[in-house]
Amino acid sequence: MTNSIAITGKCDIMEKPYGLTMRSVVKNEEGKILVLRRHPKSRTNPHKWELPGGKIEKGEFFDEALVREIKEETDLDVKVGDFCEAVQDDYPHKRTVQLIMYAKDIEGEVKISEEHDDWMWASVNEIKSLDITSSLEKIIKKRNEKL
After folding, report:
1. Stretch 107-130: mean pLDDT
2. Is residue 126 domain-resident?
3. For the chain, what is the domain count?
């Protein structure tokens, strides 16, 4: 007797490409979380608050991408800590899977890039009162408001 599985039916063809995005929970000494407000002319989530991070470039390791993106967006030097969460977002032109990691060994002073127009250190309750991205909202719900 062999163990086999028959696959029947029609598979959905992926209509939109997937992208992988890395984000990080960066905390200060008081335990507040760094959030950035996207530029109002941003293609996705204009003027919404999000965690720092961004897209992985082709051939790049995800931990290296996260360190690079945090440096580009905030001028902070960090090391990648433990896994926090994963969420998916669907946009008209693409789908993204976001891996959220904790940052550790944070050094430097925050200086944001032109991708964002504001930043703040905030508690989870303060973050919930902001106009945040759907992915950040999903992360907060999945983590039971504990980041």
Report:
1. 96
2. yes
3. 1
